[in-house]
């Protein structure tokens, strides 16, 4: 009980000063003068808008990525007390005093800084030396493209952080697999992997590539686990379930959570409302909700309605008609019915109102009690302002000659009878007698005589149609498409006389609050779908580039230019790092295939454990580069140099891996041939050549430096001339790395 | 190092139990599988002389083939009008017979074969193939249809043989043959003048010969081995030569070859030299041979089509000079551009056309109200421009002035010949591409302002060089704003006569939109040279036609507000394609898979994945399988695996394609899926039979299972056969229709 009184409480802190120093320098490089320039730099102009929306709690839709990244940036704004009042309209605009520039840029800078020690840790966990780890971290530290990108209010550095975190925690997890499965740290790292993956996906869709890579590596490991016959079936099952929970279930839940928080945060209606469905809009505060509040739920005969097209492309619009008629003869010589135009109009207008009429009766008011319209009923639609009937007939539509013209019928007495009966087809019905509901029901209007469906064709009418959108009757057989589906947005029961008004008010049906009717999942699915299908105008950009330009660094982006002093910020990589990292990539691939082919012929150039380490490092680093880079060749959107940075990070990690491998194995053959202890019977031509090269190098060193370095030089490789030799000595002096001692012993 | 990490993702240790094509592996598996059926097939008699067995084998094959031919050729001549895409491919066949040059997004082999079939059967190429529904009248179309139906009929025996080779089980092969014979979709697609039966023929032939040569693996370099290997190569060339979709079967064969070589390489009893021989043989037969044949089809294509036709405009000016009837053919024009020359300027990108202007102004509110400049695809006097020096307005054609050539880097002015206005640009936004500047015609009688000056540059040439007609790729850079003349490729509205927009783009990217060449060139002061010297070489033609085809394919984009077929619709048979007729009075043919077969296929894929993963996990856990199950799982994992790979390769890439897609794109994948179904159900029933103790019961279960599947598909064909052979009378929702009650999905419209 009181054991701690008998024995002293001892805390042994094991602090790797390298990591501390790296973090400190990283923070310094990323945070120094962070608030400079006090002006909008490049894409801050986009992200800033969204932050302002968050601050003002206004709903917005951004097709470029999931909301987590934006929310993180907004967190910075929240902590800095930003009120969202800034007009983000121009790159280079000076920030006003209410914008907390420092705290807005803090989070990306911190993530950028912490990526450096993580790179260090990843190499250690991959089983490489402290020296290689140090090299990777230093390369990350001094890569100026990464510095530039981290010091601004941009999301790439956050993405890179979560990518590296996912890889690191997976490595930690899999390294603790052998000794302590199901221990606390095992669970911690496993869970962290899932969380980091979902965060990466949540910041940018691109994160999914790293997630898939981690999943692939995890499933290969799981497959080996299944093959491990020392484990019982139950044990294997537990392992698999734990992995599935952590790597599949948790990311999904986290992803949903991001949207949940997002939708809670932005609850007010805003400029992007129009893109969403009426039901979604009604769930936001203000905007449509204010109009639709308290309107009757069930559409009845005599209802006055506005009909919105569900597809909403090219623009969201409402079924519309006006006094003008179709021109007798079109410009291309085809004729029309010369009846009143029916169009789709993207603005609220009194001409958007239609009255639902029972074909059997003459009245245009709602009965008492109201008779609801149901699926399958035949109705007429009367245009409110002109009292003409919605009509279609076998006349070619103005711009889509394969479809029927839709008009409001005008009787010219020319033996063209009116055909104004429409059958109501509720698409999202649950039963066949479902009532037509405001906002919620998505309906098709099927013409009774010709079975054509009312459809938005998407074409803009010429001047005679006031550039409004064309509406046509499309043959049902052409297949289902959302542009044929409409929903009632505004709705009121028609009352022709003042006296009846009060009566009807009294008997009005149960009012509904649509926002409660729309579940989170429905809102999430709609928002996600609209985000994925939102078309960014794929316009070219002055600084856009193609993926091939990135590797060779043939492109750069001028981020910011001071209008007077010409001070500027330029996104440009360090060509030495980029070139050497690419070279390392090539060397890795060549060596990998060389080993692979020779192993196939049962010739093992390197010991089994270092081969496995080599493969795993390649799968994560070279694989990480490939999955984050190659998919861009198939993308059609506008691409910029900064899209390459996540791939570059992985490539940078590969560079020290390759260097250490070359020095450990290829360069050591020289030494091995000298010592008869290691009988390596088969030695490739390549290794011999490299060995000779290494001999030259070493003799050079011997002339220049002392003899004390040799032990280190033996494993330090090419890099040992630079940082590594020195660091190696420091590390050896500290007596920490075991590998060093072991390798030294071999020498 | 823990084993989880230790395993490494690229576990490369050789696994003898998966050694499929290695010699040892084949020997180990071969007799096992070969001997197995006799023992484990409850259907066939265990004993029986080799002779009767061979006879039975041939009888079955003949039966399958005959049935297939009978179904495909039954009522082949109906309907006697053009159906669906016959209008394209029939027309292209006619072009070959008439030797008229045309352009299509597919490689030429399929259409060449159609043309050949038509030619041999006496069709004279005079039918116009204008639109679906046009009557053939007296024209002989049966040769072309018959050819396609012939190739389509061969699919069934090919599938039969492939499955037989993979599973060594007659019932599995029979089931596959039945599925394909009785599928209304395959049947419909094989009965018309289309590329699909030809494509599927080559795909299946390649698959069959690949499987055959795999089974020759224990006799490498023998005559049958060489035969099947080179036949694979030939069929690959055929598949790629019909449609670019043929690439998928190439990937499959490539994958098979790589894993094959990998096993050979891992077999330490073979010397490296032997492996090298294997590698060389494959490179010869699977790369060199197909490439040669593929190139040869193009050579024939260009040799046959030597007359100018509707495809000219898609190709570069130099290319057009080859075609007789084209105004560039045998033309002789001055070689180097000089001041005073009258020229036409053509955009290098396909289907943009010539720089054009006309006496119409940009409408009010769209930039400056000056004369329109557009691009136009057809030849017209308004395409003519005079190239002048920027600073003088003297007539350079005056004989007293010596000829001065235009050089790379010169500042020039382009005067529109008909209207005497200069090509002009300024800081107004272009009509459609808002980020670019507007290009107009400006000035009176050639006198304008400094916004009319352009610097002419030749791509990849040194300053001061002369500019060659047709061959030089030039850019026109606006001197004042520094922008580049280009065409955005967007269609102008009515006011611009639906010609294409011309802009001046401030982004100095090297895209084809902003690169031009000089095509016509009139200058009386210069000597003409024959254009023959400019003619492109064959490799250049080959490259150009591929670029044009790829761009044409990318150009086939679906519209936003149209219903389009999505890849996920296909395996569930969501909606068919109307080949002919709409109303109840028409003769209607509807391309739709037999739903029973298609949904069985879908179910089989799911079952296969389930069963396959169970077996794979069991093997990985080291469970000892009984000998019978071991043999069956070998067939399932290896034979079935190849077919599953084929299905995936022919299906999933469509999800990534941006171009417009149609239902019939699924049919190659459907072939693989049907073969997989055959193997799966055979294996599944055998497993069921094996798990039942009594051999009598087992045999019964197996027999009943296979028979009911066979009869079920046959009966469903009886139900749905009007889809393929044509329906007349009321539509299916009418109870009096022949198809009443068969419209199981609302989305089917027959």
TrEMBL record, chain A:
<feature type="transmembrane region" description="Helical">
    <location>
        <begin position="208"/>
        <end position="226"/>
    </location>
</feature>
<comment type="function">
    <text>Transfers mannose from Dol-P-mannose to Ser or Thr residues on proteins.</text>
</comment>
<dbReference type="GO" id="GO:0031502">
    <property type="term" value="C:dolichyl-phosphate-mannose-protein mannosyltransferase complex"/>
</dbReference>
<feature type="transmembrane region" description="Helical">
    <location>
        <begin position="639"/>
        <end position="659"/>
    </location>
</feature>
<dbReference type="GO" id="GO:0001669">
    <property type="term" value="C:acrosomal vesicle"/>
</dbReference>
<feature type="transmembrane region" description="Helical">
    <location>
        <begin position="185"/>
        <end position="203"/>
    </location>
</feature>
<dbReference type="InterPro" id="IPR036300">
    <property type="entry name" value="MIR_dom_sf"/>
</dbReference>
<feature type="transmembrane region" description="Helical">
    <location>
        <begin position="611"/>
        <end position="632"/>
    </location>
</feature>
<keyword id="KW-0812">Transmembrane</keyword>
<feature type="transmembrane region" description="Helical">
    <location>
        <begin position="571"/>
        <end position="596"/>
    </location>
</feature>
<keyword id="KW-0328">Glycosyltransferase</keyword>
<dbReference type="GO" id="GO:0030198">
    <property type="term" value="P:extracellular matrix organization"/>
</dbReference>
<feature type="transmembrane region" description="Helical">
    <location>
        <begin position="58"/>
        <end position="79"/>
    </location>
</feature>
<keyword id="KW-0808">Transferase</keyword>
<dbReference type="Pfam" id="PF02815">
    <property type="entry name" value="MIR"/>
</dbReference>
<feature type="domain" description="MIR">
    <location>
        <begin position="431"/>
        <end position="491"/>
    </location>
</feature>
<keyword id="KW-0677">Repeat</keyword>
<dbReference type="InterPro" id="IPR003342">
    <property type="entry name" value="ArnT-like_N"/>
</dbReference>
<keyword id="KW-1133">Transmembrane helix</keyword>
<comment type="pathway">
    <text>Protein modification; protein glycosylation.</text>
</comment>
<dbReference type="InterPro" id="IPR027005">
    <property type="entry name" value="PMT-like"/>
</dbReference>
<dbReference type="Pfam" id="PF16192">
    <property type="entry name" value="PMT_4TMC"/>
</dbReference>
TrEMBL record, chain B:
<dbReference type="GO" id="GO:0005789">
    <property type="term" value="C:endoplasmic reticulum membrane"/>
</dbReference>
<keyword id="KW-0808">Transferase</keyword>
<feature type="transmembrane region" description="Helical">
    <location>
        <begin position="226"/>
        <end position="255"/>
    </location>
</feature>
<feature type="compositionally biased region" description="Gly residues">
    <location>
        <begin position="1"/>
        <end position="10"/>
    </location>
</feature>
<dbReference type="Pfam" id="PF16192">
    <property type="entry name" value="PMT_4TMC"/>
</dbReference>
<comment type="function">
    <text>Transfers mannose from Dol-P-mannose to Ser or Thr residues on proteins.</text>
</comment>
<comment type="function">
    <text>Transfers mannosyl residues to the hydroxyl group of serine or threonine residues. Coexpression of both POMT1 and POMT2 is necessary for enzyme activity, expression of either POMT1 or POMT2 alone is insufficient. Essentially dedicated to O-mannosylation of alpha-DAG1 and few other proteins but not of cadherins and protocaherins.</text>
</comment>
<dbReference type="InterPro" id="IPR016093">
    <property type="entry name" value="MIR_motif"/>
</dbReference>
<keyword id="KW-0812">Transmembrane</keyword>
<dbReference type="GO" id="GO:0071711">
    <property type="term" value="P:basement membrane organization"/>
</dbReference>
<keyword id="KW-1133">Transmembrane helix</keyword>
<feature type="transmembrane region" description="Helical">
    <location>
        <begin position="279"/>
        <end position="300"/>
    </location>
</feature>
<feature type="transmembrane region" description="Helical">
    <location>
        <begin position="631"/>
        <end position="649"/>
    </location>
</feature>
<dbReference type="GO" id="GO:0004169">
    <property type="term" value="F:dolichyl-phosphate-mannose-protein mannosyltransferase activity"/>
</dbReference>
<dbReference type="GO" id="GO:0005730">
    <property type="term" value="C:nucleolus"/>
</dbReference>
<dbReference type="InterPro" id="IPR003342">
    <property type="entry name" value="ArnT-like_N"/>
</dbReference>
<feature type="transmembrane region" description="Helical">
    <location>
        <begin position="701"/>
        <end position="720"/>
    </location>
</feature>
<dbReference type="InterPro" id="IPR032421">
    <property type="entry name" value="PMT_4TMC"/>
</dbReference>
<feature type="transmembrane region" description="Helical">
    <location>
        <begin position="661"/>
        <end position="681"/>
    </location>
</feature>
<dbReference type="Pfam" id="PF02366">
    <property type="entry name" value="PMT"/>
</dbReference>
<feature type="domain" description="MIR">
    <location>
        <begin position="464"/>
        <end position="521"/>
    </location>
</feature>
<feature type="transmembrane region" description="Helical">
    <location>
        <begin position="596"/>
        <end position="619"/>
    </location>
</feature>
